[in-house]
Amino acid sequence: GAGVSQSPRYKVAKRGQDVALRCDPISGHVSLFWYQQALGQGPEFLTYFQNEAQLDKSGLPSDRFFAERPEGSVSTLKIQRTQQEDSAVYLCASSRPTGNEQYFGPGTRLTVT
Amino acid sequence: QKEVEQNSGPLSVPEGAIASLNCTYSDRGSQSFFWYRQYSGKSPELIMSIYSNGDKEDGRFTAQLNKASQYVSLLIRDSQPSDSATYLCAVRALSYQLIWGAGTKLIIKP
């Protein structure tokens, strides 16, 4: 079906606000990844889900970052009390059960003012 | 620390010529290798994957892998202005995590 979708595409938040970023993976893809990408850099791993299980959250930069995927499909990345250093593009990717290739959504550009 | 290195560029190539992009990696246990293309303001798009030593061709793109020397390259034949983008190399070892290079900016000059 359709590719990975993310919403919103752009988010402006005032410092201290909470934000929630949504990812809808490709149908049938059990693996879901969140990345953070700064300008001029490659994506940086944040967290990984296999179905509803969060198997790795080692890349989350602080305890203000939280991700969930309660039903094994849509995932939400939540950032509490946003800081200016959280400004970046947040990318979601998914892959097939036996696949290595990751397919990316369009990303959410977060700007914290 | 596992690393993937790419020349940041920009690499400028005349239209119609061959563009050659290189990537080296530090983890000898790496198993899977990927090239992504990223246009400015867009997300990465997978263009090639390669898993074994040698060449893999797909249209105008050829990926080359040399595990002994720990490098992977991407050749783009008959370069077009639409190929102008940043090319990201990503490497996967035994785990699910991809280790990413910072990307090489490619400019195709008409």
Count the E strands of chain B: 11
How much of the sequence of chain B is in beta strands? over 45%
- Ends of chain B: how far apart? 40 Å
Report the structural category of chain A.
mainly beta
Helix-strand topology string of chain A? EEEEEEEEEEE
Oligomer: heterodimer
Give average pLDDT of chain B, whole number: 95
Order of helices and strands of chain B: EEEEEEEEEEE
Number of helices of chain B: 0
Shape of chain B: globular
Q: How many distinct beta strands of chain A? A: 11
Largest interface: A-B, 20 and 22 residues
Helicity level of chain A, as a percent range?
under 10%
What percent of residues of chain A are in strands?
Answer: over 45%
Structural class of chain B: mainly beta
Number of helices of chain A: 0
Helix content of chain B: under 10%
Stretches with pLDDT under 50, minimum 5 residues of chain A: none
* Main β sheet profile of chain A: 7 strands, mixed
Name the shape of chain A in a single word: globular
Rounded mean pLDDT score of chain A: 94
Q: What brief labels describe this structure?
A:
heterodimer, A: 113 residues, mainly beta, 7-stranded mixed beta sheet, 4-stranded antiparallel beta sheet, 11 strands, B: 110 residues, 5-stranded antiparallel beta sheet, 55% strand, globular
Can you tell me about this structure?
Chain A is mostly beta strands and 113 residues long. Chain A has no helices and eleven strands. Chain A is globular. The mean pLDDT of chain B is 95. In chain B, strands 2, 4, 5, 9, 10 and 11 form a six-stranded mixed β-sheet that branches. In chain B, strands 1-3-8-7-6 form a five-stranded antiparallel β-sheet, with no helix packed on it. Chain B has 110 residues and is mainly beta. Chain B starts with a strand and ends with a strand. Chain B is built from no helices and eleven strands. The chains are: A mainly beta (113), B mainly beta (110).
